[in-house]
Specification:
Blueprint lengths: L1 E8 L8 H14 L6 E9 L1 H12 L7 E5 L18 E2 L4 E10 H11 L3 H17 L6 H20 L4
Parallel strand pairs: 1-2, 2-5
Antiparallel strand pairs: 3-5, 4-5
Helix pairs in contact: 1-4, 1-5, 3-4, 4-5
Length: 166
């Protein structure tokens, strides 16, 4: 498995650092059955204004949100994300497939943490997991999709608790 993760911290955000996101991201790939994946992605920590602008411009919703993901590869059959399966998307310079971008708003994460009686750190990690699952193709528009996504999220929470990450 190869995961290249770039973190763009535009707000001096104090949520999870790049090293931890990389560890968590690899576990998400494992849980999702992508043990052979060769991918890269970018995570952005942004402020409320930027997340609101993104939400308005791309989702037609004029409000802040916690996390937005942009998936660049459609993979409805959950094929291994490798050069062999996606040769046109494979970048030989990084030896990965660029999967997409995740935008997380620390300010919204902090508000939600208070509401859910979580720490901001835990909320940020959960948002990253949620965003990564979207990047991999999960969704929650229908009840069946929601159950599948929740199952993956619960598996990740169990892993993170066992690893004493949260």
């Amino acid at each position: 498995m190869k995961l290249k993760l770039e973190l763009q911290n535009k707000t001096n955000c104090s949520l999870a650092n790049q090293k931890l996101l990389l560890k968590i991201g690899k576990e998400v790939l494992r849980v999702f059955g992508q043990n052979k994946a060769q991918i890269s992605l970018t995570v952005f920590y942004v402020d409320e204004k930027e997340i609101k602008d993104i939400n308005k411009n791309y989702r037609n919703k004029d409000k802040e949100t916690d996390v937005i993901s942009f998936r660049l590869i459609q993979n409805p059959e959950n094929l291994p994300l490798t050069k062999n399966n996606f040769p046109l998307d494979f970048d030989p310079s990084t030896k990965t497939i660029y999967l997409g971008e995740i935008f997380i708003c620390e300010e919204v994460a902090k508000k939600q943490a208070k509401e859910f009686e979580n720490s901001p750190f835990r909320e940020g990690v959960e948002l990253f997991v949620h965003g990564m699952l979207h990047i991999l193709g999960c969704d929650h528009h229908e009840e069946k999709e929601t159950k599948i996504m929740k199952n993956f999220e619960e598996q990740m929470i169990t892993f993170l608790n066992k690893q004493k990450i949260m």
